[in-house]
Amino acid sequence: MTESIKLIAGNWKMNGVGESLEEAAALRVSLDAEAANCRVALCPPATLIERMSATVGGSAIEVGGQDCHAAASGAFTGSVSAEMLADAGANLVILGHSERRTGFGETNADVAAKVEAALAAGLEPIICVGETLEQREAGEAVAVVSEQVMQSLPQSLSCNAFAVAYEPVWAIGTGLTPTLEQIEEVHVAVRAAIVARLGAGGEKAPILYGGSVKPSNAKEILNVKEVGGALVGGASLKAEDFLGIIRAV
Ligand code: 13P
After folding, report:
1. pLDDT category, 49, cuts 50, 70, 90?
2. What does the longest C-alpha to C-alpha distance in the chain come to?
3. % of the chain at pLDDT higher than 70
4. Distance 212 CA to ligand 1 centre (A)
């Protein structure tokens, strides 16, 4: 197993307005006082990236977007480019989240194109994969997730920093989590798929687990083989909950 520094990233999804930055400010105060044993990132809605960056600027907290367009610029009303995220202060971007794949019809090829756009703008992509409940119950989880990795990761990643996040769709926002054995089985398969796709350039990228991570289950999940961090939804909205997860590293 290749051990590198873990990444704990919070995905605020479509939650948060200006006053929510108080949570980011509180997180900053705590992490300024007690250095985290890992990388910490917050991914707020696009409207908050610039203000979030100002709030946590100079601290250890990194800022990410939740999606970007595959094109660098142009007539794409309502979309945000990777360069715009970087310009607003982001250094990371979540791509291919299941809520984008199912809600907005994003394919593996779309995700791969967005990854290329992110890399061109100097952003570190966090590429999400995960099976549905039906696929899990049909015994297809490993095959589905391995295929998503193979198809969503462009070759150009091999010489860039990136992360993959395994988020079982049925574990997102449900309070359900896979067993530790199930998490290990998929994470080991994801590592094998990354290395099959990218060669040695895929040996070190952290593989995050996401789906109902909370302070009470973070430690056992983060200790599973090949779990290189967590992608946290609901529990990242409150500084105290998110800190509980960060402290579990
Ligand atoms: P929850 O932590 O709310 O289950 O969300 C997980 C997720 O989708 C993070 O991207």
Report:
1. very high
2. 48
3. 99
4. 6
Q: Which amino acid is at 231?
A: L
DSSP, residue by residue, 5-32: --EEEEE--S---GGGHHHHHHHHHHHH
Ligand 1 pocket, Cβ-based, cut-off 6 angstroms: 11, 97, 167, 172-173, 210-213, 231-235
Report how far ligand 1's centroid is from the alpha carbon of 223 (Å).
19
The Cα-based distances of 65 to 33, 178, 182 in angstroms read 26, 27, 29
With a CB cutoff of 8 Å and minimum separation 6, the contacts of 39 are 5, 6, 7, 8, 60, 62, 229
Query: Which distant-in-sequence residues (6+ apart) come within 8 Å of 147 by Cβ?
Result: 108
Distance CA 132, CA 122 (A): 31
Give the position, in ligand 1's atom list, of the atom nearest the Cα of 98.
8
pTM higher than the cut 0.90: yes
pLDDT band per the 50, 70, 90 thresholds, residue 2: very low
Map tokens 């054995």 to a residue.
Answer: 181
Q: Which residues are catalytic?
A: 97, 167
CA 17 – CA 44 distance, rounded (Å): 9
Domains observed in the chain = 7-246 (3.20.20.70)
Q: What is the pLDDT of residues 147-196, one digit of tens each?
A: 999 999 999 999 999 999 999 999 999 999 999 999 999 999 999 999 99
Give the per-residue pLDDT at 4. Answer: 80
**Cα angle 105-107-113, degrees, rounded to a multiple of 5:** 120
CB 209 within 8 A of CB 183: yes
Mean pLDDT estimate for the chain: 97
